[in-house]
Amino acid sequence: QVQLVESGGGLVQAGGSLKLSCAASGRTFGNFVMGWFRQAPGKEREFVAAIYWNGVTSYTGSVKERFTISRDNTVNTVYLQMNSLKPEDTAVYYCAADERVLTQRSRYWGQGTQVTVSS
User: Fold this and answer.
1) Measured between alpha carbons, how far is 72 from 88 in angstroms, rounded to an integer?
2) Which of the ends of the chain has fewer CB neighbours closer than 10 A, N or C?
3) Using an 8 Å Cβ cutoff, are 86 and 117 in contact?
4) pLDDT of residue 1
5) What's residue 86's pLDDT?
6) What count of Cα atoms within 13 Å lies in the side-chain half-sphere of residue 18?
């Protein structure tokens, strides 16, 4: 059974940092694209960042220069280092994985971890 389990969320003040982790199990994800989406209260879920099997990364514009995505294929884990956090980054953050590209219909999803940034 494939599982994605996120951790690392919490409450932080504006300007602070958090590092999210997503541990995958049930299969090897070395050839998959993995990444993060987020959903703020009252808003649709949106793409945040992705990292491909070859290390290429992609970010949504509002997090560039502040967030860094990375992965460790030896432990089937993807990370999201979030710096200079802003109140508008408050959301539930979801890990996702897919064979080719991450979309709202991607195959594998985690349960989500709450990130709250206070002003």
Assistant:
1) 28
2) N
3) yes
4) 83
5) 98
6) 23
pLDDT, one tens digit per residue, over 26-56 is 988 889 999 999 999 999 999 999 999 999 9
Share of the chain above pLDDT 70, in %: 100
Q: What are the respective helix, strand and coil percentages of the chain, to the nearest 5?
A: 5, 50, 45
Given this model, what pLDDT does residue 28 score?
A: 84
d(CA 61, CA 42): 21
DSSP 40-95: -TTS--EEEEEE-TTS-EEE-GGGTTTEEEEEETTTTEEEEEE-S--GGG-EEEEE
Q: What is the mean pLDDT of residues 55-79?
A: 96
The pLDDT of residue 75 = 93
The SS3 call for residue 10 is: strand
Q: What is the Cα–Cα distance from 93 to 47, expressed in whole angstroms?
A: 10
Sign of CA dihedral 3, 47, 40, 19: positive
